[in-house]
Write a structure and sequence with these properties.
This protein has 108 residues and is an alpha+beta fold. Helix content is 61%, strand content 12%. It has helices at 6-19, 21-34, 52-76, 86-93, 97-101, and strands spanning 36-41, 44-50. Strands 1-2 form a two-stranded antiparallel sheet. Strand 1 and strand 2 form a beta hairpin. The longest helix has 25 residues, at 52-76. The mean pLDDT is 84.
Length: 108
């Protein structure tokens, strides 16, 4: 077996440090402190770690944005002349106010 070169020794030290428990815990503490952490691989961003709260907030923002886009698309095609009143919609569906009195409605 060949001798360990200085380069091999340095590589092993870096590898052990990189995957040590303390190092990994440090990464998670950085995420906890700042909300995000960019993980680099070969000097390029490989992924982003983020706290669950940050992820949920980001997904909520994305959902709100998508709903806003949908609403704007619908309003762009809206023709008031084709709109129906609540009363006409109920009549066309055969629904009365009495039918709706005891109904529970949940709006998100």
């Amino acid at each position: 077996v060949g001798k360990n070169t200085q380069k091999d020794i340095i590589f092993r030290k870096i590898y052990r440090r990189h995957w040590s428990t303390e190092y990994q815990i440090g990464r998670f503490l950085q995420v906890a402190a700042s909300g995000t952490k960019v993980v680099m691989k070969n000097t390029k961003p490989a992924c982003v770690l983020m706290s669950p709260d940050k992820y949920e907030a980001l997904m909520e923002m994305l959902s709100d944005y998508m709903m806003q886009e949908e609403a704007e698309d619908r309003m762009a095609c809206f023709d008031p002349a084709e709109a129906m009143s609540r009363r006409k919609v109920m009549e066309s569906l055969g629904i009365t106010d009495a039918d709706l009195e005891d109904m529970e409605v949940e709006i998100e």
